Amino acid sequence: MPKFNFLATMIGTVLGLGVVAAMPNAHAASLIPNREGEIKTNLGCLAPTICIDTTSLGYTVTSLDFDGAGGYGPSRLFVDDRATSNTYVGSALTVSFGTKDAGTNTGVNEYWLRPVAITESGNLPESGQLEVGRFLFEFTKVMSEITLDFFDVEDIGTGVLLINNSPVGSSMLSAGKNNGIQTLTFYNVKSFEVQLGNAYSSKFPKYGDGVNLGIKGTPQAVPEAGTTLGLGALAVAGMFGLRQRKKSVLAG
Which residues of 117-152 are buried (b: 16+ CB within 10 A; e: fewer)? Predict the structure, then answer.
């Protein structure tokens, strides 16, 4: 019985070390593409040359109608750096971003996700500078942690509505300072639905409250099965080898 316990302990220890060795150190990284353009959603893109496919970053985005029938339709989503002016021309819409916005001004040389509200009749409030929209982000793998930075929340109406298709409590943000940042963090996330900005703000009835989004994430670390099994096999082989050598010494 003592020999069995010793063997089991050694195999368990080596297998444990194998799992640890196979799990890389994961660190939160920005999930925003590092170039300007339009995020590819269910709406497609205004033009193929500006389209950014986020599947290489491990997620897809669906734009949702945030106010039902009438009013606004699904918004478009862009990656924007305020350091440059950009004009995006489509067959039906032209969206322009300057280096200074009427109300929401992120830091220069920073990439942010910038929604563009569009009325159901196809018009662009504020010439495309109303940063309001509702979006569903779906990850290809479970994220052990995501951090959402909300830029310039000045009125109620912005926050996370669903995590993994389930409602979450206390995830709507309070009104904050002009150009301030509020942060929410969630764990074990496969998808989330987020509302950015408030088109019907009582605080800003003429323009609404625009909000930009930043995302950082850490994917779940998954042990490499081949590496773990390989180390386990080596452990077993090592134990039997040790047992055979002991027999040889006793026989001599």
Answer: bbeeeeebbbebbbbbbbbbbebeeebebbbbbbbb
Render the burial of 172-191: b for 16+ CB within 10 Å, e for the rest.
ebebbeeeeebebebeebeb
195 C-beta neighbours (distance < 10 Å), count = 21
* Half-sphere exposure for 145 (CA within 13 Å, toward CB): 12
Distance CA 166, CA 88 (A): 35
Q: pTM of whole model > 0.90?
A: no
- The phi-psi region of residue 197 (left if phi > 0; otherwise alpha if psi is between -120 and 50; otherwise beta) is left
Q: How far apart are CA 158 and CA 160, in angstroms?
A: 7
Tens-digit pLDDT profile for residues 34-91: 999 999 999 999 999 999 999 999 999 999 999 998 899 999 999 999 999 999 999 8
